Amino acid sequence: MTRSSAQFTQPAAGSSPSALLVVTAVVIGLAGLALAVAGAWLIALGGSWYYLVAGLGLIASALLLKRGGGIGLLYYAAVVLLTLVWALWEVGFDWWPLAARGDVFFVVGLFLLSPWVARALARRDATGIGRTRAALGVVLAAFLLAAVFSWTREPGRIEGIAPLPDASSNATAAAPVSPPPAKDDWTAYGGTGFGQRYSALDQITPANVGQLEEAWHFRTGDVRGQPGDPEETTFEVTPLKIGERLFLCTPHQAVIALDATTGKQIWRYTPEVQKSLALQHLTCRGLSYYAGSAAQPAASSTPSPSPSVPAGACDAKLFMPTADGRILALDPADGKPCTAFGGGSGQIDLWKNMPNVKAGSYYSTSPVVVTRSLIVVGGTVLDNVSTKETSGVIRAFDVNTGALVWNWDSGNPEETAPIAADRTYTVNSPNSWSISSVDEALGLVYVPTGNQPPDQWGGKRTEGAERYSSSVVALDLASGRVRWSFQTVHHDLWDYDVPAQPSLIDLRVGSEIIPALVQPTKQGELFVLDRRNGKPIVPVNERPAPQGAAAGDRTAPTQPVSGLSFDPPALTPADMWGATVFDQLACRIAFHRLRYEGRFTPPSTGGSLIYPGNFGVFNWGSIAVDPQRQIAFATPTSLAFVSRLVPRADDTTLYVQGKDRPNDSLPALNENFGAPFAVKLSAFTSVLGLPCQAPPWGHVAAADLRSGKVIWKHKNGTVRDSSPVPLPFAMGVPNLGGPVMTAGGVAFLSGTLDQYVRGYDTGNGKELWRSRLPAGGQATPMTYRGSDGRQYVLVAAGGHGSLGTRTGDHVIAYALPKR
């Protein structure tokens, strides 16, 4: 061996490592120190020992690398191997959780194998460098193989085939006469008063849905971000289609009529709405339609006033809820107010006989129910502001005159006759902010209810509030009296109000046809009930619930659980996630510091993990049901939230909002004036703003409504529009907005956080088509037949303020190419 080669292969006396090795060692050492310190904290909380061991291994590797020893690579390889074994033990071959545990180690390992590091190490100690580099390379290759294999797998995915439509049946017991499903027209928010979100049109099929193209594109001109707009300003509308016209409303309350085939505007009506309202939400989910003297609600031509009807009376009507607490009646022919309605004003004032009148604290965001003779109206009452809010009364008005016919107030449920002029409804009674359904043959309207504020503390709730909160309540159309009610949560402390419209469907069960109601809930249940009496068709069991509510409150001993449930499995420390091992570790520490005993963990002053959170497994978008296949198309979402009660010493201090109290007539959100606790609510996220729980967070699924079996379930959506890095891969993202199903075997959905409308095969759940939207599509699509004979699919794309999706004012129609 020559002198020069000896100098290359052996460290020279007094020689020092290169700057590259020093910097590399320092970075690895600091990473190890962070893992070791935080890992020791996690152990003290009762968590995994992995992070401490891995951190110590990185520190040892760093010290050896700084000395210039190639054995430092071997220590690093041992840490990577430990990480791989531990990750596979915790999460198996699940790509996203696996990636969060190993991505940093893998990238740093590749750098350590780079020629620059190899040369620097060889200058200090060439002996053994090849073997240690090979060992590290083998471990990294094993990690890569595990990652590649896991990419092809989807744990939790359910594969299956939905039953084919079967119009024939041996069922003998006839159900009440049900209206035909939506077809050429779309006459109510959910297609019909049954809320099925199903169309009998079959022109679009799995074989041709990929050919859908944009037919027309309309801009409403409604601009968000105006002075006084709340954060949650949203374009959630599902338009109606009556004859040859579409009717829709905008967040700022304009009503627009369009030609259904061309998208051209026919008329626009913009009402005067009280300004400077301090609203929690500003939206209009849709209008309601009354056919008047027409034989069928779904008119075959453009509605127009009957010649025999006096001017201003309007035979047919559109009903529009406003943000300042009114219901307007408009003529579908020209958009002018029906001045004979409401005693000559063309409107009814929902503040009449209400207690605690405060501008903006009560209004309807959802369309009213319309029957042959009535409109039935609920409304939003502010959540978590105070214990002295207005009433959540449900009222029925004469569809032609606007006169009050009955009122159902859960605080005074037996007195449904119209209230006297000098009386007010019950303060703070549970409300119904979502959409109701109606079965006129049975004479029932089905109302989903909320809670008596505040949501997270119920120590002072009245007996009436407890009896009917978080329930679906069947009210008699003639009298408003309760025929039956079914409670989905007992003593609700989680804001698990019933958010979704019930879907009505006639189920063929054995030799019977049972008129059923399917009620989705925020906690993931699909309660399948006999809509005549509220008795479960799919079994419901009462399960023990965690105990130990905050001071002055109680916790229900059991909670109802349906045999058909999309309730996600309880979270474990292994479910914690992040972009790297470091924020994943931070999420683990946060998990162990929060109170969590599974679903229905009570809120606490130390902070409780609420899973699923009040965003809901299901929200106002509800589900779609196919009356032929007897299945539901569902879009379950699973996100965890943190609920922390803040003790109040008085009724004036702002414990949550601090100095940011709005300069308006309403107190700040979540302060709960009058209760012993304010509440801090937040999504359970990492320091980087990512959910602390591993994806997927959103799915599409189908369920058999008779057996309660989930037929198929697939993750759905990407983080393309909600991540700093626009990843196009299917991660499974939250959805807000409902689906629509068709007799052609295709379902459509636009509510995911990425800006797409998608078409799915309802038989197996496969995504067949997608189209890029110019803004968030947090609305429920609908479908209809145009005058050209084509089936159209319509989407409103305007975004959702509190979700951060791109805002806009787009209404887009898709159809198959003209032949």
Describe this structure in words.
The chain has 819 residues and is an alpha+beta fold. The strands form twelve sheets. It has a five-stranded mixed beta sheet, with no helix packed on it. The protein has a four-stranded antiparallel beta sheet with strand order 2-41-40-39, with no helix packed on it. It has a four-stranded antiparallel beta sheet with strand order 4-5-6-7, with no helix packed on it.
End-to-end distance: 84 Å
Helix content: 10-25%
Please tell me how large the radius of gyration is. 30 Å
Mean pLDDT: 91
Number of helices: 9
What is the strand tally?
41
Strand content: 15-25%
Structural category:
alpha+beta
Could you name the ranges where pLDDT drops below 50 across 5 or more consecutive residues? 1-14, 295-308
How would you sum up the global shape? Answer: globular
- What profile does the largest beta sheet have? 5 strands, mixed
Highlighted features:
819 residues; alpha+beta; 5-stranded mixed sheet; 4-stranded antiparallel sheet; 9 helices; 41 strands; globular; disordered N terminus
